[in-house]
């Protein structure tokens, strides 16, 4: 079985619709066909300030949401990044292979550090993509299911895997990004020119899966469309409507052309009302299942402990081989 690896940050509490459609939904599907490793990336979370208590609670909450979304611990390996120390250990080696300018060209770093200001952005934020490289290479992943915003980081992973392999010998599988066209980028409901995101979206443009379903329905109904009335998939001229059609299509399995036909001559109101209902039907059981996992933290923690054990077995082997190839003296 080919291997997949991916991660999600435990920063915002609730996952948003972009996280789910862009990434987590694919994770659930891929556990059936791949040897799948999925993690809550708490080491990544501290690249921006975190309250320790909240971080701990959000880490459990992220795991609960992943299980609620359909990850099955018997079908995949689900763990918390900090439970596997090899991530940080391999990241150091990768940091030492990465050019300063190369890391500086990562657009997510440029955007986030510009927003925070040079003095407040941390070295951790700068080197975040390199930690991500280590995350992926440790598991010899063939594919990495992510949203479009992560493509550049997967390219960096490929470059560094090839660099290491070229310099020290074949150690790493060179992975590919697994990005589905339909859900590569889910856009903000109020500003469809930007991606839906926890840091850039306004509350009205961001659908958090754990919000009150009523509030979610309201956001869908007040999504920005355009002054026209025609329902047509046209991301350039009709980005708002096209975003709604994409969301509707993946959540229901109906094709976009089918939806265009269904709503021909009906106007935006009908589309939004129906999509609001689809959203409510999706988030209501999701919230309930998440709460059930949270109500039983012992079971949740034991799932994560077993996941960490399975992950460590793979990660430790890669790290030991890598350290040896670099020339570190083995500890006797
Ligand atoms: N709008 C999106 N469309 C498609 N995929 C998306 N992802 C995030 N936003 C969208 C994908 O979700 C996965 C988990 O991402 P993360 O844990 O790195 O979260 P993030 O990227 O920090 O989420 P945000 O909201 O985008 O955070 P900020 O605002 O801090 O940048 C990834 O696979 C990502 O591609």
UniProtKB/TrEMBL annotation:
<feature type="binding site">
    <location>
        <begin position="9"/>
        <end position="11"/>
    </location>
    <ligand>
        <name>ATP</name>
    </ligand>
</feature>
<dbReference type="Pfam" id="PF00579">
    <property type="entry name" value="tRNA-synt_1b"/>
</dbReference>
<feature type="binding site">
    <location>
        <position position="135"/>
    </location>
    <ligand>
        <name>L-tryptophan</name>
    </ligand>
</feature>
<feature type="binding site">
    <location>
        <begin position="18"/>
        <end position="19"/>
    </location>
    <ligand>
        <name>ATP</name>
    </ligand>
</feature>
<keyword id="KW-0067">ATP-binding</keyword>
<dbReference type="InterPro" id="IPR002306">
    <property type="entry name" value="Trp-tRNA-ligase"/>
</dbReference>
<comment type="subunit">
    <text>Homodimer.</text>
</comment>
<dbReference type="InterPro" id="IPR002305">
    <property type="entry name" value="aa-tRNA-synth_Ic"/>
</dbReference>
<protein>
    <recommendedName>
        <fullName>Tryptophan--tRNA ligase</fullName>
        <ecNumber>6.1.1.2</ecNumber>
    </recommendedName>
</protein>
<dbReference type="InterPro" id="IPR024109">
    <property type="entry name" value="Trp-tRNA-ligase_bac-type"/>
</dbReference>
<keyword id="KW-0436">Ligase</keyword>
<dbReference type="InterPro" id="IPR050203">
    <property type="entry name" value="Trp-tRNA_synthetase"/>
</dbReference>
<feature type="binding site">
    <location>
        <position position="186"/>
    </location>
    <ligand>
        <name>ATP</name>
    </ligand>
</feature>
<comment type="function">
    <text>Catalyzes the attachment of tryptophan to tRNA(Trp).</text>
</comment>
<keyword id="KW-0963">Cytoplasm</keyword>
<keyword id="KW-0547">Nucleotide-binding</keyword>
<comment type="similarity">
    <text>Belongs to the class-I aminoacyl-tRNA synthetase family.</text>
</comment>
<keyword id="KW-0648">Protein biosynthesis</keyword>
<feature type="binding site">
    <location>
        <begin position="147"/>
        <end position="149"/>
    </location>
    <ligand>
        <name>ATP</name>
    </ligand>
</feature>
<feature type="short sequence motif" description="'KMSKS' region">
    <location>
        <begin position="195"/>
        <end position="199"/>
    </location>
</feature>
<dbReference type="InterPro" id="IPR001412">
    <property type="entry name" value="aa-tRNA-synth_I_CS"/>
</dbReference>
<keyword id="KW-0030">Aminoacyl-tRNA synthetase</keyword>
<dbReference type="InterPro" id="IPR014729">
    <property type="entry name" value="Rossmann-like_a/b/a_fold"/>
</dbReference>
<feature type="binding site">
    <location>
        <begin position="195"/>
        <end position="199"/>
    </location>
    <ligand>
        <name>ATP</name>
    </ligand>
</feature>
<dbReference type="GO" id="GO:0016874">
    <property type="term" value="F:ligase activity"/>
</dbReference>
């Amino acid at each position: 079985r080919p291997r997949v690896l991916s991660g999600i940050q435990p920063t915002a509490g609730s996952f948003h619709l972009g996280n789910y459609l862009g990434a987590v939904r694919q994770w659930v599907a891929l556990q059936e066909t791949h040897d799948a490793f999925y993690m809550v990336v708490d080491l990544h979370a501290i690249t921006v300030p975190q309250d320790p208590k909240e971080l701990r609670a959000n880490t459990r909450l992220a795991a609960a949401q992943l299980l609620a979304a359909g990850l099955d611990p018997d079908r995949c390996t689900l763990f918390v990044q900090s439970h596997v120390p090899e991530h940080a250990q391999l990241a150091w080696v990768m940091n030492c292979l990465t050019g300063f300018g190369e890391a500086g060209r990562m657009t997510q770093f440029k955007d986030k550090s510009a927003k925070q200001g040079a003095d407040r952005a941390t070295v951790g934020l700068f080197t975040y993509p390199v930690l991500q490289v280590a995350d992926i290479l440790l598991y010899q992943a063939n594919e990495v299911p992510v949203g479009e915003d992560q493509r550049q980081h997967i390219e960096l992973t490929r470059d560094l895997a090839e660099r290491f392999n070229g310099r020290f010998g074949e150690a790493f599988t060179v992975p590919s990004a697994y990005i589905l066209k339909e859900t590569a980028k889910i856009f903000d409901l109020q500003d469809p020119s930007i991606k839906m995101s926890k840091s850039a979206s306004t509350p009205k443009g961001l659908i958090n899966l754990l919000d009150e379903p009523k509030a979610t329905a309201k956001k869908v109904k007040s999504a920005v469309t355009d002054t026209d009335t025609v329902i047509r998939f046209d991301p350039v001229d009709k980005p708002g409507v096209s975003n709604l059609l994409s969301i509707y299509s993946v959540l229901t399995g109906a094709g976009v052309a089918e939806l265009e036909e269904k709503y021909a001559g009906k106007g935006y109101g009908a589309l939004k009302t129906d999509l609001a209902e689809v959203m409510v039907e999706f988030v209501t059981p999701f919230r309930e299942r998440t709460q059930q996992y949270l109500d039983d933290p012992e079971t949740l923690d034991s799932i994560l402990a077993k996941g960490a054990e399975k992950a460590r077995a793979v990660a430790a082997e890669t790290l030991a081989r890598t350290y040896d190839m670099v020339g570190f003296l083995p500890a006797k």
